[in-house]
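for the writeup, i need someone to sanity check this before i put it in the appendix. the sequnce is what the collaborator sent (i think, or maybe the updated version? ugh). structure was predicted straight from it, no edits. if anything looks off just tell me and ill rerun, i have time this weekend
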Amino acid sequence: MSDIRTIKKYPNRRLYDTAISSYITLGDIKELVMSYTPFRVVDAKTDEDLTRATLLQIIAEEEEKGSPIFSTDILCHCIRMYGDSMQGMAGRFLEQSMKLFESQRRDATDPMKAMWTANPMQFMQNIAEQNLSMLKTMQRNFFVQEQTRKPAEPQPAEPTEPSDKN
């Protein structure tokens, strides 16, 4: 038996959890996410992976409810990254930033560690500094990769000065 739960999505948009042999809702999938339960959503007929699309649907619904995480400005920045040469790096940066933020949040909610980080402004400043450091490292690595990937361009010949020999 696989450790990853399989959720089948049918043409009528119903979701079927094969682990519990029952139809579930997007709210149930959100609970799987919140409990760190690994899962994947697949099209019942084609077996196409629909996990990302389902997660984006949950995010869209959550954004409509209360206080959104993504401002219009952030969403515009994300859209502008598609097709950009830095798209892959931006995705990795966002993923690493979220992991770092979650780790910091988890540490801050631990009662003993919360005493060590009693100042919320210092907490946020530490996260910002770590993000900046991570971004600089990713940029350095990106440019090193680009330099090793591109063949060296031939240097133009230096102009020669006319000789005064007659």
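Residues 30 and 36 are 10 Å apart (CA to CA). The chain has a mean pLDDT of 82.
thx in advance!!
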